[in-house]
Fold each of these.
Amino acid sequence: MGQHEIDTENFPYHPEKLPKKDYVSVNDYFSLDIRAGKITNVENYPEMRKPSYKITVDFGSKIGQLSTSAQITNYSRSELINRLVVGAINLGEKTLPGGFISQFLILGALDPDGAVNLLELPKNVMLGSTVA
């Protein structure tokens, strides 16, 4: 399954509809660089086909600020600013409409219809901390 789609009629992400994925090696998992960060900026992204935001996240002094686009408009901009999030930061960059460069993937759990529930972190997590 690639990029998710929001579908409020067919509920494609209902847990009963999702097969278990094939096994991967532990090395595959540990190849991912998953870090804690804090959202510092959120802008509407009208160039996208589906409602989306451009999001900037601070991953601490070692990594710095990275940008991504996400279909998380079920959250208001004010709910997102200063929120701690989890991001996979070593998946490569992708150029999106309007020349915007997405540098990481923000992580969340999908509702049955595909709406994203961002993963939550305790308030005392240091920016840039590895998520294991």
Amino acid sequence: MQTNWFIIFEARGAWYIDNEGTEFGPFPSKRQAGTEALTIARTFGDKGRRSRVYMPDDHGKHQMIWEGA
């Protein structure tokens, strides 16, 4: 099964969400971007694929914070 990824990243002092080339944002904080990414993944994720949300930790390494069918 293919996976639909939601990646949270920082650019130009703001936070964004990337979902396979579609960008959401800007958000003023990483936490707000994470909350919105979870909402988008749950509400609008591809029904035929698993969804995963990745957020950078304090060292910049992306960690999976949520996975849903």
